Amino acid sequence: MTINEVQNNIIDEFSLFDDWMDKYNLLIDLGKELPVIDPKYKIKDFLIEGCQSKVWLHPVYDDKLITFTADSDAIITRGIVALLIKVLSNRSPEEIISTDLYFIDKIGLRQNLSPTRSNGLLSMVRQMKLYAMAYNAKNK
Amino acid sequence: MKNIAEIRADFPILSRKVYGKPLVYFDNGATTQKPQCVLDAVDEVYESYNGNIHRGVHFLSDMSSEAYEKAREKVRSFINADKREEIVFTSGTTGSINGIAFSFGERYIKPGDEIILSHLEHHANIVPWQMMCERKGAVLRVIPINDKGEIILDEYYKLLSSKTKLVSVTQASNALGTILPVKEIIAAAHSVNVPVLIDGAQGIQHGIVDVKAMDTDFYVFSGHKIYGPAGIGVLYGKEKWFSELPPFQGGGDMVDKVTFEKTTYNELPFKFEAGTMNYPAAIGLARALDYVLSIGRENIASREKELLSYATGRLSAIKGLKIYGTSDRKISTISFHIKDIHQYDTGMILDKIGIAVRTGTHCAQPVMDRYGIDGTVRASLCFYNTKEEIDTLADGIEKVKSMFA
User: Fold this and answer.
1) Low-confidence winner among B84-98, B303-317, B348-362 (lowest mean pLDDT)
2) CA distance B36 to B42
3) Confidence of residue A111 (pLDDT cuts 50, 70, 90)
4) B237: which strand partners?
5) How many CB atoms lie within 10 A of CB B303?
6) Closest chain B residue by Cα to residue A74
7) CATH: 3.30.530.20, 3.30.70.890, 3.40.1260.20, 3.90.1150.10. Which one for B4-30+296-404?
8) What ipTM score was computed for the predicted complex, to two decimals?
């Protein structure tokens, strides 16, 4: 699947629910499905510090694709991380850098979980893109 | 006293809905909502007599200045200060403490001197002193707390020494709700000639504050936490300190005579009010204080006591819920954590049910560190809240538990 196909799937899945409580339940389920990060990466080096919940993000690059694993101490945040990983993990650095993450707006994540809500959504996206840029630069 | 329906009708925002659900506003510790009379007071300034204070000779400037000085007089009588010269308007509690920390540091502090705080302080009563200590080579000493979240007075007495230059403590903890024994703290400090600053940000709205009876040297609070507008605060100081302390900001209005060689300062309290003050907010604050008096401070205190006791009962009955801050003397603030559920998750779900609470460290990280936790959920109630709202919160918490189980 292309990145945009994955984004469209997420948008379809969220559009099944009108009520934000149901959307939260979906996020919670997604959070539970998130592949477990190796505990040795749950250290300060891989911590993205939001104000209220912690997120650890670890990249692995095999010279073609970047694979992300992650975790958070808050479950809703873990659900958001799971969405970002669905879209951006196992992609090439170029893809990650150039992707327009339109699903965030489409499913209402930005209004409902905006940066002022301190979940670090934008910090996570920025960090993933930064890793991609770093690997991309190393390739050249 | 007005009944609860009448009181709630005074606050337009309380009847609004969020996400289609009736608003349950339990974040009064962060800021309180405003009664219509306060909104009107601020509107009136801009609609009918706005002019910069203390400057113009014209009609509007005179009217604004007069209303602003009346607001000062209202604050004076509200906290029972001796003189209007002892009441300085600032931007808020943070502005007041920063001001005093600067001026007091410049005037009195030498390397090795000590300032005593408590472990319960809000960052606003820690960081300004730290900045001053760094500048002056002084040292912060901290009164420890026990497991109930109360300061340990005996440890405080041991900290007081000839090196102590000032004690600055909160009247009530914003994170746990504990009311501090300020009378004892002040008496002990005065017995060794040390002045005291009381941070009233979480105190003034919950009962009667009498700075003379308390005998505090400085008292600070924010307008927006006592039903007034944001952007206005008060710094009370005994005249003997205010006359000795240098200004903390320079600018217009605070001066007597300015030449490029030297400036002499205006008389009290204007020496501490540089530039254009937020006079519409000061006037709004005065109206808020009038409103509080019209409800009655004893009435507010007894109603809040009842709400605290009801909420404590309802919440402690919830399995897995732990309350932090269990002193017998508390303001109507309850900090809690639900077992195995992150406070952020709890807050997000409660929000969608229409309940406004605060989550996180409440700008009091040392308090969280003391308990080895990284945050709590805080419900801070005030007199316009109801038992039904507390029931909604309790049901909401059960809902949260079922979602994250």
Assistant:
1) B348-362
2) 10
3) low
4) B218
5) 21
6) B342
7) 3.90.1150.10
8) 0.86
